[in-house]
Amino acid sequence: MQVINSLYAMLNTRTVAIQTARRVLWVNLILTFLVSVFSLFFVPFFHENTMGWFVVIPVVGYILVYYSMSFRSKITVDKAFNYTICIPDHSSNTSRKIPLEYITHIEICEYRLFNNSNYYPCGVDQSYFYTKTMFGYIGLGLIVCYKIPKSLSGDSITRGICFPESKANEFLKFVKENTLG
After folding, report:
1. How far apart are CA 57 and CA 43, in angstroms?
2. Can you tell me the distance from the alpha carbon of 26 to that of 118, in angstroms, rounded to the nearest whole number?
3. How far lies 179's CA from each of 6, 14, 63, 68, 141, in Å?
4. pLDDT tens-digit map of 112-163
């Protein structure tokens, strides 16, 4: 029954805005090199066209690294015009869905390669603040603070999440127009 309900919810939502945060080029090239070297161990070198393997494997490896190792977040709307920010949660292979009406505060942050500070927004419980990291991503990010109603969560804790967001200005503008006034 749960599968049917999730399929029904998926069919009744549409994506309003989507963004994909990707790593910088040199990190993608290093990861492609590592994937290519690993996959060359499985190439049968007795095959006639050995040089073709050394060209095809890095190209296919780069395409796989570029499109599979990214962070995609989106804003969806259902038939009742309820907007939701969907952020993938790789620990449980689901997505964290934050309704826009629960957002109390949103701000832009900066992702750097090595000097990321542990910034906690005011009013957010530190044990309920999560930072989604992506090695090699340099650029903008969003900090979203939200408070789930006490009737749904059993507590009145303000939660927060920080995630890479290449289109942070567009998302911030959209959220402010539709919720925060």
Report:
1. 10
2. 26
3. 26, 18, 38, 32, 19
4. 877 666 677 777 878 888 888 788 888 888 888 888 877 665 677 788 888 8
In angstroms, the Cα distances linking 40 to 67, 68, 147 are 21, 20, 50
> 3-state SS of the chain?
CHHHHHHHHHHCEEEEEEEEECCCHHHHHHHHHHHHHHHHCCCCCCCCCHHHHHHHHHHHHHHHHHHHCCEEEEEEEECCCCEEEEEEECCCCEEEEEEHHHEEEEEEEEECCCCCCCCCCCCCCHHHEEECCCCCCCEEEEEEEEECCHHHHCCCCEEEEEEECCCHHHHHHHHHHHHHC
Over the stretch 35-76, which tens digit does the pLDDT of each residue have? Answer: 888 887 777 666 666 777 788 888 999 999 988 888 888 888
The span from the CA of 155 to the CA of 23, in Å, is 37
Q: Please tell me the distance from the alpha carbon of residue 121 to that of residue 107, in angstroms, as a whole number.
A: 9
Contact 164, 88 (CB under 8 A): no
pTM strictly above 0.70: yes
